[in-house]
Design brief:
single chain, 145 residues, alpha/beta, 5-stranded mixed sheet, 3-stranded mixed sheet, 3 helices, 8 strands
């Protein structure tokens, strides 16, 4: 009788470990970090909209901005008109000029990004991305950021 209970407990433990492993792996596989501008970074001379186009962005993904300390920054803008016209007076979020910024894509919808330093926006340091909801398999997953 006692051996039967031990076998049942081991079976339940194995099932729990299997499910936990699948959930953990699915979360790690889905979240993607995109280095904006790739090896050229968040600097002048990159067509950031062309870089952003053709990628699929989901909740939980992250945009990584690398640049020379103090040279640029990252702001999130409210709408397309603000991005198109480089209207940077009232950003939704303004990140420090630290040389590396991370934007966590937490909610579905369009995200408008620019640099608000000097003439950066007019020189092309701007783009937008469409963030899609998490795939159905991950709807209940929690991301640690």
């Amino acid at each position: 009788m006692q051996q039967k209970a031990i076998k049942m407990a081991n079976k339940n433990l194995c099932i729990f470990i299997l499910i936990a492993t699948i959930v953990t792996q699915a979360t790690w596989v889905r979240a993607v970090e995109y280095t904006v501008g790739e090896c050229k970074g968040w600097n002048e001379g990159v067509d950031f909209q062309a870089w952003a186009d053709g990628k699929q962005y989901f909740q939980g993904d992250r945009l990584i901005f690398n640049y020379e300390y103090g040279k640029h920054n990252v702001v999130l803008l409210a709408d397309q008109a603000s991005l198109d016209n480089c209207n940077l007076e009232k950003p939704l979020i303004s990140l420090a000029h630290c040389g590396r910024n991370v934007v966590n894509l937490r909610t579905p919808g369009r995200v408008y990004v620019s640099s608000a330093v000097g003439e950066d926006c007019k020189k092309g340091l701007k783009f937008w991305v469409d963030v899609k909801p998490c795939p159905a398999v991950l709807q209940g997953a929690h991301y640690i950021t």
